[in-house]
Amino acid sequence: MTERTALITGAAGFIGSHLSERLVADGWRVRGIDCFTDYYDPSLKERNLRGLANEPRFDLERVDLRTADLGKYMKEADAVWHLAAQAGVRASWGKEFETYTTINIQATQRMLEAALEAKPDRFVYASSSSVYGEAPEFPAAETSATNPISPYGVSKLAGEHLAVLYNKSFGIPTVSLRYFTVYGPRQRPDMGFHRFYRMIYGGEPVTVYGDGEQTRDFTYIADVTTANFLAGTVGRPGAVYNVNGGSRASVLEVLSIMEEATGREVQRDFLPKQKGDPLHTGGDPSKARTELGFQPEVDLRTGLFHMNDWIRELLEVE
Ligand code: NAD
Ligand code: UGA
Questions:
Q1: Shortest-distance ligand to the CA of residue 177
Q2: What CATH number should be reported for the domain holding residue 106?
């Protein structure tokens, strides 16, 4: 079989580094793009790529999607996974919004323009459950109303609209994946589970926003990687899919499992609910199951124990 070539933006990030490893292991040649933004410590991104350091079928371009000549990188790609973004929900208010518009919207449009010429077989766009906001129904189907409640969600929905639009107008085979709160090894340090483990091992109380009864349809990283692979190979051009783990749980339930996984007592420090955070998220998995054959395999408890092993190594916990 001829070797296939992937272009992955955000390849040094949490999800992008896992996807890069997965595709290389499956025999793909992978070209990653990442400019190591300082949204969180770039040394963590260097660390994410350690497993690919001596891999001849992986190379990384340290360029910024806002300015780079994207056609040059895309022209050899059979499939594109566009994961690069400014990803935090709660940090998207105020003057920071400019970063969200230039990366999540404008750079996405630049990527789609480059695809007009490069004509990849698939162009996967990393969308987000945040496009739903406070979903009007549970579980939320792809046809449910989208009413984002954070500026981040607005920017991800704009990117998704662009992806769908470039499919309708020019036939670019875009496939959009609405991932639901992803967790596991390499999770970003601004995200809930990473913060919780750090606080637990640091002997500090865990910061709980609101009453902790808010729920998320948490999705384990290996499952998200599989969904990406399927979308980039058999996803229906123009389609939008939920990618959710089916492990809907509250923050307080998560902390109880973490107590078991770490063997430490968890103190809870209740803080006000944060602007932009929906109370609940939950996705209808049927479309991804039927059309992509996607079925999440890792339940929350198993995933949290795996993540605990990783964080202990990262923090050098004895
Ligand atoms: P991440 O921040 O770990 O990875 C994103 C990477 O993109 C970073 O390494 C960053 O340096 C890079 N990047 C940002 N702007 C760039 C630019 N202009 N040029 C080149 N590189 C750039 O985030 P993640 O959690 O891995 O998220 C990946 C994608 O998935 C994002 O699009 C995010 O919106 C989406 N998403 C994530 C989650 C989640 O729970 N983590 C859920 C839904 C959607
Ligand atoms: C996550 C990602 O960070 C976004 O990039 C992504 O787009 C989004 O999922 C999505 O699904 O689309 P979020 O659900 O806020 O966003 O994920 P976490 O940061 O892991 O937060 C999970 C829950 O823990 C939230 O209810 C949050 O309020 C809570 N939390 C987080 C706390 O109670 N305390 C903290 O210190 C951090």
A1: 1
A2: 3.40.50.720
pLDDT reported for residue 1: 59
Count of the separate structural domains present in the chain: 1
State which residues of the chain have pLDDT below 70: 1
Whether 100 is catalytic: no
Q: Which residues are near ligand 1 (CB < 6 Å)? A: 10, 12-16, 33-37, 45, 64-66, 83-85, 87, 103, 107, 126, 128, 156, 179, 181-182, 188
Q: Of the listed 152, 179, 183, 197, which one is catalytic?
A: 152
In DSSP notation, 68-133 reads S-HHHHHTT-SEEEE------STT-SGGGHHHHIIIIIIIHHHHHHHHHHH--SEEEEEEEGGGTB
Nearest-atom number in ligand 2 for the CA of 131 is 12
Taking CA atoms only, the protein residue closest to ligand 1 atom 39 is 182
Centroid of ligand 1 to alpha carbon of 154 (angstroms): 16
What is the CB neighbour count within 10 angstroms for residue 184? 23
Tell me, in angstroms, the distance from the centre of ligand 2 to residue 288's CA.
Answer: 23
Structural domain range at position 140: 5-182+221-245+279-297
Query: What three-state secondary structure class fits 318?
Result: coil
The reported pTM is 0.99
